[in-house]
Give the backbone structure.
Amino acid sequence: MLLVDIVMKGGWLMIPISLCSVFSLGIILERLVCYAGMAGKLKQLTEKLAPLIIGNKFSEASLLCEESKGLISRLYFVALQEFQKDSQIDRSVEDEIELVQRTIDEEIQVGILPDMEKHLNALDTLARGTPLLGLLGTVIGMIKVFFTLGIGQSAPDPALLAKGIGFALITTAAGLIVAIPSFFMHRYFQGRVDQFMTEVQKAKAWFIGQLAKRHQISLVAEHE
């Protein structure tokens, strides 16, 4: 009941601040679940995928990536699907590497990066905007307090004055309560995006390395 009373006396600006808290919490929970699903088990995937790529078993490799979870498996699946479209064409290793690089870079820019950064701008806006709403509520509350003092003829009751100023500060406190965790979680999520992008670049280099190794093994087999 005390919390409800504080919210009610905080003024009408507590309504948008409360909505901001709901949206912020929703985005944070959604991003945590999303990033947990993107992690996957990269080491186990590459150990199974390497012999399939080197052995020209691209259909099996695609199936393995499709059944695996994680961001990297999705990236490998898209690259393998594109690679198999013209599998009958005799391409040089340079052409294959160029095709894979182009496919992976397009998937990163069009698919993966937007998914990783989804809702982060909104969370940043909530972290920056909610304190302003709180400050506005405090300013309006203080104006009301001083107008009340100006209208009164007798000396103001210090207890009532302190109570009025306290309630005027509620919106600022509420705005900061919402903004501080939103700000830190936004920074954390940005760090996760940067970490994922580093892993993606390493994964691309690994995939290209497997293609080069495949061609080297093929050349050795032809000369034997």
Q: What stands out?
A: The two ends are 85 Å apart (CA to CA).
